[in-house]
Amino acid sequence: MKHSFSMGLILCMMSLQPAWAQDKDDDLKPEETRHLEASDTTATNVEQQNPQAAAEIRQFLTTHIAHANAKDIEAYLGDFDAKQLKHADQLREYTKRAMALKALKIELLAVEFAQIQQKAATIHTRQRSGYINDSGQNVVDDVILSYRLVRDDNHAWKILFTERRRLSAP
Length: 170
Fold this sequence. Notes:
Order of helices and strands: HEHHHHEEEE
Distance between the termini: 52 Å
Shape: globular
Number of helices: 5
Strand order of the largest sheet: 1-5-4-3-2
Low-confidence stretches: 1-39
Number of strands: 5
CATH architecture: Roll
Structural class: alpha+beta
Helix content: 25-40%
Radius of gyration: 18 Å
Largest sheet: 5 strands, mixed
CATH class: Alpha Beta
């Protein structure tokens, strides 16, 4: 009995590990994301009240996406808060698989500031990534990617976690 329970637990853990690296986000219809196509007043106010932090965050996002487009795994992973990062091994494996995609190109289409505090920020972005799959087909992935950012000990912005929602086709 004890042996079968242990084996069941091992099989369960083996099946869970790939799930951490898979995209489990909900599909959204484009009309549900219109708020990211044009600045709304709340997001504009957040940015106007914190212009320096907003500019730093925009620069951070540009650099983070440049790391992905350059397929610089170490720089990309360095954008995350290592002290609070859970499942670092799974993030590394996911990053390696994503950066192995042929002709990977990520574009930042829009940024919405939900909250900026002295040491933390929440932002929502619309991003489009394109790549060539194993069958040689061009794939375009249009997503809303939300970031929770924190400042590290050196006052630099780092990613605490992200949440991704795929936009469905019209």
